[in-house]
Amino acid sequence: MSVEKIISEKLNQSFSPIHLDVLNESNRHHVPPNSETHFKVVVVSEQFEAQRLIARHRAVNAVLADELANGVHALSINAYTQAEWQALDVVPKTPNCKG
């Protein structure tokens, strides 16, 4: 199973998201073709209500600890409540690779 699929399944199981995007951004970095090393996740969940941003990021990192320890080099996390998501005009873009 692809790393992207594993990330999607784990986040779905852990957060029951209203919205979930898992984007493999490895092609934007200096890695071999078809790599699965750099990801961006957009997670919208009621579980994030009353949580600070750092707590949301820690929760996502905890769920994906195995992937982060075994090949995933970078993870951009955009974690929102439903109200934040509805008020959002656009998800922040991932910066270009500087390497």
Task: Please give a structural write-up.
This protein is an alpha+beta fold and 99 residues long. Helices cover 35% and strands 20% of the residues. It has 4 helices and 3 strands. It has a 3-stranded mixed β-sheet with strand order 1-2-3. The termini are far apart.
Helical content band: 25-40%
Briefly note the structural class of the backbone.
alpha+beta
Strand tally? 3
Radius of gyration: 13 Å
Report the span from N to C terminus. Answer: 29 Å
Q: How many DSSP helices?
A: 4
Q: Give the uncertain stretches in residue-range form.
A: none
Provide the spatial order of strands within the biggest beta sheet: 1-2-3
Main beta sheet: 3 strands, mixed
> What is the 3D shape?
globular
- Strand percentage: 15-25%
Sketch the topology as an H/E string, one letter per element. Answer: HEEHHEH
